[in-house]
Design brief:
By secondary structure, this protein is of the alpha/beta class. Strands 3-4-2-5-6-1-7 form a seven-stranded parallel sheet, with helices on both faces. The termini are far apart. One of its GO terms (molecular function) is ligase activity.
Length: 777
């Protein structure tokens, strides 16, 4: 990396976690500033996480101070105090650690040209963490502007888990020219030490969390110095923390960390981990990336890993040294999850990472960036278009689309142009554009950013201490006196006050807070491996006895599909008729398909009662027998029911709410006050209805459709599933429930049960009854 820097070359460094990527990225900067000390901003470090910037600052300042170098290293994120932010623009440090959102805001100031004119290097850490998302679009546009302000700028990317380095070299490079970015590969280091935890050699029929193994996980925490316990959702993290606390007989210090906790709570936990005061930490994706704590010697993944790259990234947090294997243990929640866990370990052993799916840059992000550039200074239209096209996600941007975005920022579009509040840009002679009025600069900075959170309420004690936030939708189900688990505590609701929930600690058991948003779906290559495992008996000797028995009885009672086949089983159960499809396309795709198929069942007179889905399959049930499943899966479902359903559901409205906020059409904040989530939703719903009626081809409606298709319904996987159904469906009609159907059928019973220990007992009993019926030959 030093040699590349000396030649002025940009570089992508792909190296194992613990190989010293961060130091390799910063070493050229330290050397240059040691040889030629200089004031002003020299290096920008951009990370996807606020916590990562703080962590790197801690690990970087130590060596710099030990060498006695006059180098200032500071962070700038949403958590940075405003007085320090103001001072950083006037007297920036030599090294600034920031996030894509904060960088975009810095570029919106009129003095940004002076601040960045001598910038030498930008380091993008954990590149895979956001390059393919809207935050990556924003960062890529910011890098294009930085390159214009500092033409000699070097770009450096760092990552541990990339399956297609050339795609990332293109993303990192000016004009998407990957030849401008050298690939540097680190030593792969020791092979990870990975295993699957199976308590008493039994895996439950149902569940997706690994909760059954809480006592065994606690024993692992007792046997290791520091253990990170990863969960796939915030709700699950709260649940697992409570389960571990209940069996923490030795009262070991354990903590919890996720994105909804107050920044003070997160910092306390991070500090405790860094100083070795915690023995265990339950965490979510908030700690997936780059946090380097040397004493972590075990990582436990609760539930299925969903992807080999994600698992490798998480396991890499353990034994942060290149010459020692990272130790990781997966705790599968059910038998399908066991297969997925085994597939992930095999993929890692074979060096197969999750595929990279890049897509064109989002138009709502581009609208926000264009306004930020106008806020910093008037711009010339053709110059800005050329600059935008030099960022990889927007390399193919049509001039017509660019002009449409300019028109949208200038007027709001045809249906909204009568309203002054939507006029944010004004054209001038010679293709120049400027902001319509000075207040727009302040409004932009208050509302910029591409992470649109669900409307939230703040959880506080009466003394004012803030614990974090919960989503408005969940908060609306609470009343004074209700109990819920949050931040590792049992809390009783005392009162609702403005946007706060006032709580007190309780010793009684509570509900687990749930959050909206997408679940992570199993990656396509893990799904493919699981399909192959099902029909390859040569693999079964590696499985626990109960898993191989499960598959054996399935093959006798029904069939195990070939990898290319879509198995659909139909059977009666307790007065209802069930259809179960094993498609392995992920929870999000199955949820969407379940809605569409139950609509078709309604039309066909099959009297549907509902459906349930998991990552592995979909079960629909009703009062009439389904004789012809193929008709329900016919490909025209995506042309007819899909469009009707999306347009009539909240799906498109929710997507529109996000693009309207990012695109600047609806503001979350005004000087001195913040809109409630309900107010934002009300504003976007009104505008949505106007545009649907009068301007259905509006830029933001198209952007919302793109979002709805791409992210919320995983359209690509839906299309593959429907295609496969029409060509390879294998329909088996059986007289009763089959072994492979049990994990799905248990979910049907879950909906009627209240949360709590008694419900868990009922579920276990129900699962055993279903299993007995399914496994009887």
């Amino acid at each position: 990396m030093l040699e590349r820097a000396q030649r002025g070359r940009s570089a992508l460094l792909v190296a194992a976690t613990g190989a010293g990527k961060t130091l390799a990225g910063f070493l050229p900067t330290i050397c240059e500033l040691a040889e030629e000390p200089a004031d002003g901003l020299h290096t920008l470090y951009v990370s996807p996480l606020k916590a990562l910037a703080v962590d790197v600052q801690r690990n970087l300042i130590g060596p710099i101070e030990e060498m006695g170098l006059p180098i200032r290293v500071e962070t700038r994120t949403g958590d940075t105090p405003s007085d320090r932010k103001a001072r950083q623009r006037v007297k920036p440090p030599q090294v600034l650690l920031t996030t894509p959102e904060s960088l975009s805001l810095l570029l919106s100031y009129p003095d940004s040209a002076q601040m960045f004119e001598n910038l030498r290097t930008i380091i993008v850490d954990e590149l895979h963490g956001f390059a393919k998302e809207k935050r990556g679009d924003l960062l890529s546009l910011s890098m294009a502007r930085l390159q214009k302000l500092a033409p000699a700028l070097r770009r450096v990317g760092l990552s541990a888990t990339i399956s297609d380095p050339d795609a990332y070299r293109s993303w990192l490079a000016p004009d998407a020219d990957m030849e401008l970015v050298d690939l540097v590969l680190g030593d792969p280091g020791a092979e990870p030490d990975l295993s699957i935890l199976i308590p008493e050699n039994r895996i439950p029929w149902a569940g997706h969390s690994g909760r059954h193994a809480a006592r065994e996980v606690m024993k692992l925490i007792e046997a290791h110095k520091t253990t990170l316990v990863f969960c796939n959702t915030r709700s699950l993290a709260e649940l697992i923390f409570q389960d571990l606390w209940a069996v923490n007989d030795n009262s070991l210090p354990i903590g919890i960390h996720h994105g909804s906790l107050a920044v003070e709570a997160r910092r306390r936990v991070e500090e405790a981990m860094a100083t070795g005061k915690l023995r265990g930490l339950v965490a979510t994706a908030s700690l997936d990336l780059g946090i380097d704590w040397g004493d972590v010697d075990l990582v436990v993944q609760m539930g299925a890993p969903k992807g080999s790259s994600r698992l490798l990234q998480r396991i890499g947090r353990a034994n942060h040294r290149l010459d020692e294997p990272s130790k990781g243990i997966i705790v599968p929640g059910n038998r399908f999850e066991y297969l997925e866990a085994r597939a992930a370990l095999d993929a890692i052993e074979d060096g197969e990472l999750d595929p990279e799916n890049f897509r064109p840059g989002a138009l709502d992000v581009l609208a926000q960036h264009i306004l930020a550039m106008a806020v910093s200074a008037p711009f010339q239209q053709d110059d800005l278009l050329a600059e935008v096209r030099s960022s990889a996600p927007y390399a193919g941007l049509e001039q017509e689309t660019f002009e449409e975005i300019l028109n949208f920022i200038a007027t709001g579009g045809y249906a909204l142009k009568a309203y002054d509040r939507f006029r944010r840009l004004v054209p001038e002679p010679g293709g120049m554009w400027r902001i319509a009025r000075p207040q727009i600069a302040q409004q932009h900075r208050l509302n910029a950013g591409v992470i649109v959170e669900q409307p939230v309420l703040t959880v506080r004690f009466r003394n004012g201490r803030k614990l974090g936030t919960i989503e408005e939708g969940y908060a609306s189900t609470l009343a004074p006196g209700d109990l819920f688990f949050f931040s590792g505590l049992s809390l009783e609701v005392e009162q609702f006050k403005d946007a706060d929930i006032i709580v007190r600690a309780s010793s009684k058991s509570g509900r687990i807070v749930t959050y909206g948003g997408q679940r992570m779906s199993m990656s396509t290559h893990l799904a493919s491996r699981v399909r192959h495992m099902l029909c390859d008996r040569n693999d079964w000797h590696r499985f626990p006895q109960d898993v191989s028995d499960w598959l054996e009885v399935q093959s006798e009672r029904s069939v195990l599909p070939e990898p290319h086949q879509l198995l659909v089983e139909t059977f009666p159960h307790e007065g209802r008729h069930y259809m179960v499809a094993y498609s392995f396309e992920g929870w999000n795709a199955h949820q969407s398909l379940g809605m569409l198929i139950t609509r078709r069942m309604e039309t066909a007179g099959l009297k549907p009662l509902g459906f349930v889905a998991n990552d592995y399959g979909l079960a629909c049930y009703g009062l009439e027998t389904i004789h012809d499943p193929a008709a329900l899966f016919s490909p025209d479902i995506l042309e007819q029911e899909f469009v009707t359903w999306v347009e009539s559901s909240m799906l498109l409205k929710n997507a529109f709410r996000e693009v309207a906020v990012i695109g600047g059409l609806v503001e979350r904040h005004h000087p001195g006050k913040k809109k409630s989530g309900r107010q934002v939703s009300f504003s976007t719903d009104l505008i949505y209805d106007v545009l649907r009626r009068y301007e259905p081809e509006h830029l933001l409606l198209r952007a919302a459709w793109d979002d709805a298709r791409r992210r919320m319904t995983e359209l690509g996987r839906l299309v593959r599933l429907v295609d496969r159904a029409s060509a390879t469906m294998l329909h088996v009609d059986v007289e009763r429930i089959t072994p492979m159907a049990v994990p799905l059928m248990v979910i049907v019973g879950r909906e009627a049960l209240p949360p709590g220990a008694e419900a868990d007992e009922s579920l276990l009993m129900q699962a055993e009854e279903l299993a007995n019926a399914a496994m009887t030959l």
